[in-house]
């Protein structure tokens, strides 16, 4: 199971500052088990966002959001509610968030940090390496930590050529994908901001994050 | 003056700057650096010492810079984020400034997979833009990344690189703007062979007014052989060599002379581009040719400030 925890509400609120209408997505898989993005948490977030004056155009709970085919199918039923929203808040692990990003042209916001365990890989693309400090808010829902060979937060480096990474012609340049995605959803300006050095402390590499405290 | 280095003075006073690259040895012989320093001393305003370029272990950039400094040369310390975390980087910068290094060039670094230790762990704790911003904060606010203060002045002339030949092309100028906002004082570009594409990129740079905010030095690599031309065209990431140049080299009677001619033609064209404030010559394993090129390009004598 992928261990995720909800981002602080203030951080989420900061992400949705400019959005009036929001669509919510939760997961009945790991995020439900972690109590970070199951039905109860989605309803709780809905209530808190409404208290902050946001309108929720709808929400969907999907069995495994990381399953792209399933997610696309489920979201098709909510096409209108999603279309009417300014953004989609995804209360799942990083793999789920990126699956939603590749299934919709809406701006997505991550509602959780993925902190541990089990590689979230769906078929080809490595999607989440559980770094514990999710940056998908800034990178158009595509993870540069998992997918850029240098893990750059302000890429692409000078080695991006024809959409491919310098280390292999088979590896798509994550930053090319991020720029394309931002361009498509009209948020390229977000990349003008310099993303600050990342907090690596919650990363899996320093022992079990659930036991370190 | 931010740092008072020779490079800063040359650029601030409006001269067309010339810098050259000094590759350190895969070994301990100081004389390798000293010999290159002696050879190039009168032909450029500053010398860059590369930082384990192409991820191959070599003498450190800091030591190479000190050896040049001792000879009265203004060194540019190159620093990649591939091999050091934010603790080591800031520590090395403090040490470099203490030893009189005034120019630092910030780079991502070629991926470790290209070097002689492909199984090494790449660090990439911070990226090159964050490095530029860190150095600016150290210099202007006398603070390190965590916000704590540091003692002493941090005189730094901060450099960054940009590759107009990488993709996505339209985004490269936006990324340059980001580097300028982060605090870059000068920019070195990847080697220019495709002058047309470079000119177009510079138009976009000028449209954003970036040429007024940062000194841009265009990269020049003299090509020594047909093999090198082909190798750079086919195998070196981030470099774009048009077929036409490879063909010229293939058909030349005197290959080295043709390489020099191509470099001189490119320099002539670069000099005419608005917003280009100098050139950076990267004569990889062909340092001897730099004096010839600088002289024939009409860039002598170098200003003494």
List keywords for this structure.
heterodimer, A: 213 residues, alpha/beta, Rossmann fold, four-stranded parallel β-sheet, two-stranded antiparallel ribbon, 9 helices, 10 strands, globular, B: 305 residues, TIM Barrel, eight-stranded parallel beta barrel, 11 helices, 8 strands, 41% helix, 15% strand
Structural commentary:
The complex is a heterodimer of chains A (213) and B (305). By secondary structure, chain A is of the alpha/beta class. Chain A has one domain: Rossmann fold. Helix content of chain A is 31%, strand content 22%. Chain A has 9 helices and 10 strands. Chain A has helices at residues 9-15, 30-33, 39-51, 68-76, 79-83, 94-101, 144-147, 174-184, 209-212; strands spanning 3-6, 21-27, 55-62, 87-91, 107-110, 112-116, 120-122, 125-128, 164-165, 168-172. Chain A has a 4-stranded parallel beta sheet, sandwiched between helices. The mean pLDDT of chain A is 90. Chain B has 305 residues and is of the alpha/beta class. Chain B has a single domain (6-296), classed as TIM Barrel. Chain B is built from 11 helices and 8 strands. Chain B has helices at 6-12, 30-40, 61-69, 86-98, 128-140, 169-182, 195-207, 226-235, 243-251, 255-271, 289-296, and strands at 17-22, 46-49, 75-80, 103-107, 157-162, 186-191, 215-220, 276-281. In chain B, strands 1-2-3-4-5-6-7-8 form an 8-stranded parallel β-barrel, surrounded by 6 helices. In chain B, α8 (226-235) packs antiparallel against α9 (243-251) and α9 packs antiparallel against α10 (255-271). Chain A binds chain B through residues 149-163, 166-167, 173, 176, 179-180, 188, 191-192, 194-197, 200, and chain B through 82, 86, 108, 110-111, 113-114, 122, 124-130, 133-134, 145, 161-163, 166-168, 171, 174-175, 177-178, 181-182, 190, 237-238.
What is this structure's SSE topology?
The complex is a heterodimer of chains A (213) and B (305).
Chain A: E1 3-6, H1 9-15, E2 21-27, H2 30-33, H3 39-51, E3 55-62, H4 68-76, H5 79-83, E4 87-91, H6 94-101, E5 107-110, E6 112-116, E7 120-122, E8 125-128, H7 144-147, E9 164-165, E10 168-172, H8 174-184, H9 209-212
Chain B: H1 6-12, E1 17-22, H2 30-40, E2 46-49, H3 61-69, E3 75-80, H4 86-98, E4 103-107, H5 128-140, E5 157-162, H6 169-182, E6 186-191, H7 195-207, E7 215-220, H8 226-235, H9 243-251, H10 255-271, E8 276-281, H11 289-296
Parallel strand pairs in B: 1-2, 1-8, 2-3, 3-4, 4-5, 5-6, 6-7, 7-8
Helix pairs in contact in B: 5-6, 8-9, 9-10
């Amino acid at each position: 199971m992928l261990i995720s925890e909800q981002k602080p509400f203030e951080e989420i609120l900061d992400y949705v500052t400019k959005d009036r209408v929001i669509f919510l997505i939760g997961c009945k898989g790991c995020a439900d088990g972690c109590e970070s993005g199951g039905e109860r948490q989605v309803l709780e977030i809905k209530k808190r966002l409404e208290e902050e004056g946001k309108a929720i155009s709808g929400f969907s709970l999907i069995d495994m959001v990381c399953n792209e085919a399933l997610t696309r199918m489920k979201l098709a039923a909510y096409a209108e509610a999603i279309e009417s929203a300014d953004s989609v808040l995804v209360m799942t692990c990083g793999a789920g968030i990126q699956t939603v990003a590749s299934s919709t042209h809406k701006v997505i916001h991550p509602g959780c940090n993925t902190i541990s365990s089990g590689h979230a890989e769906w078929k080809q693309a490595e999607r989440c390496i559980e770094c514990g400090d999710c940056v998908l808010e800034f990178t158009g829902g595509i993870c540069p930590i998992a997918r850029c060979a240098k893990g750059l937060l302000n890429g692409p480096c000078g080695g991006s050529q024809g959409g491919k990474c310098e280390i292999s012609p088979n590896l798509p340049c994550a930053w090319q994908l991020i720029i394309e995605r931002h361009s498509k959803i009209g948020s390229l300006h977000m990349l003008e901001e310099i993303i600050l050095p990342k907090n690596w402390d919650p990363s899996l590499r320093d022992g079990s994050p659930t036991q370190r405290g | 003056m931010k740092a008072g280095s020779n490079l800063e003075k040359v650029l601030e006073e409006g001269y067309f700057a010339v810098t050259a690259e000094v590759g350190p040895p895969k070994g301990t012989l100081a004389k390798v650096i000293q010999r290159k320093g002696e050879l190039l001393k009168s032909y450029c305003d500053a010398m860059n010492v590369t930082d384990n370029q192409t991820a191959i272990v070599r003498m450190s950039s800091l030591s190479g810079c000190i050896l040049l400094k001792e000879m009265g040369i203004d060194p540019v310390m190159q620093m990649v984020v591939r091999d050091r975390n934010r603790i080591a980087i800031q520590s090395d910068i403090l040490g470099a400034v203490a030893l009189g290094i005034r120019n630092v060039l910030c780079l991502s670094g070629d991926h470790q997979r290209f070097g002689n230790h492909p199984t090494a762990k790449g660090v990439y704790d911070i990226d090159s833009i964050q490095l530029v911003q860190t150095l600016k904060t150290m210099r202007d606010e006398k603070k390190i990344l965590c916000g704590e203060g540091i003692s002493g002045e941090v005189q730094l002339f901060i450099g960054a690189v940009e590759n107009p030949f990488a993709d996505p092309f339209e985004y490269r100028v936006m990324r340059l703007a980001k580097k300028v906002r982060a605090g870059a004082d000068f920019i070195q570009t990847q080697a220019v062979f495709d002058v047309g594409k470079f000119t177009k990129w510079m138009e976009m740079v000028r449209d954003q007014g970036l040429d007024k905010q940062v000194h841009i030095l265009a990269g020049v690599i003299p090509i020594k052989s047909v093999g090198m031309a082909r190798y750079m065209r086919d195998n070196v990431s981030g470099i774009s060599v048009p077929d036409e140049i490879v063909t010229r080299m293939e058909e030349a009677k005197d290959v080295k002379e043709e390489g020099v001619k191509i470099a001189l033609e490119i320099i002539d064209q670069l000099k005419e581009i608005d917003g280009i404030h100098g050139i950076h010559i990267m004569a990889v394993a062909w340092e001897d040719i730099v004096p010839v090129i600088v002289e024939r390009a009409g860039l002598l004598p170098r200003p003494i400030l």
